[in-house]
Amino acid sequence: MSASDTxxxxxxxxxxxxxxxxxxxxxxxxxxRHVCAHCGTIHYQNPKMVxxxxxxxxxxERVLLCRRAIxxxxxxxxxxxxxxxxxxxxxxxxxxxxxxxxxxxxxxxGLFSLMNVPHVHQVHLFYRAALLDLDFAAGVESLEVRxxxxxxxxxxxxxxxxxxxxxxxxxxxxxxxxxxxxxxxxSVDVRKRMRT
Amino acid sequence: MSASDTxxxxxxxxxxxxxxxxxxxxxxxxxxRHVCAHCGTIHYQNPKMVxxxxxxxxxxERVLLCRRAIxxxxxxxxxxxxxxxxxxxxxxxxxxxxxxxxxxxxxxxGLFSLMNVPHVHQVHLFYRAALLDLDFAAGVESLEVRxxxxxxxxxxxxxxxxxxxxxxxxxxxxxxxxxxxxxxxxSVDVRKRMRT
Lengths: 196, 196
Hints:
2 copies of one chain form a homodimer. Chain A is built from 2 helices and 11 strands. By secondary structure, the first copy, chain A, is α+β, with helices and mostly antiparallel strands. In chain A, the strands form 2 sheets. In chain A, strands 4, 5, 6, 7, 8, 9, 10 and 11 form an 8-stranded mixed sheet that branches. A 3-stranded antiparallel sheet of chain A has the order 1-2-3, with no helix packed on it. In chain A, a hairpin with a 4-residue loop joins strand 4 (48-57) and strand 5 (62-68). The A-B interface holds A 7-8, 10-18, 20-21, 28, 31, 43-49, 83-92, 110-111, 114, 116, 118-119, 121, 123, 140, 185, 187, 189 and B 7-8, 10-21, 28, 31, 43-49, 83-92, 110-111, 114, 116, 118-119, 121, 123, 140, 185, 187, 189.
């Protein structure tokens, strides 16, 4: 069996002892894993979390977006978000990424969307957030940072489906919110687009 | 600097090329990473997701728990849950773990709790779920599987804080639900208990 039969990223050597790993189904398991025959370590791979915020300036109902200065999707617009780090909480990750990418200080206001992206082994979380001031600035991973009203959002230049879907759901909920409804929590699975 | 200064698990060798890795802060980064000086690979480590369900039998308001047949917490009771796998969604993970550990078929009814456990680099998600029948049975990772009314829950023998907190929140919401309230979504940070 080869790695192309599995959802595993390639792995050649054991990170514990440095010997070559094998691809096999361990005892009491039902999936292929990279296993070290020398030291016995099973190297599990699991999905990663990408966590971000929807920084909102309530006075004129604008949302902060960042234009990416890094690949993938260099030059496209995104909500501030990034890989969650060890030792932090999801809310700490959302606030950290918003500060790092947009220099923006926020009050977090609850989880708004959970987006499964199984073909890249990721789960994206976006928190609603109140921008505390307009003293923001692009960080090293952003070309520019700007506020957008709904009718100004560059929909054709949004970097990721999880971001465009979160923005559409957010502005939908915002309309309902003006009518007195609370913001919802939205769970969406984003599948790979296949030619049919 | 040593690994004890970081939230990283130990890593000795590059899993790409097999050479020794070094612990350093890469350019354009602000955290220590395991980096391979030979092939240039940066080996990031990120939190893992543990996903499970709260299988509920509505007729007599009982919740299904599993007694663990594996460490950690062998012999203690838990909700069915486990590490999310690559290529699946959070809901697929919750249903799979419930089937594997308890042989139970469920209808998922929405995300109920998100529990950050930053000192072990984990995020736990629990979904509300309707048990579809009572034809369940312990899987290889469970010693036994049983239904419990709230006043039967073995609180002193629950395996993990995230499970006991989720169960308490669930039964609180259940009381409110009888009064017509919808079930909530609960976000909790579980910090390491320190001697003070």
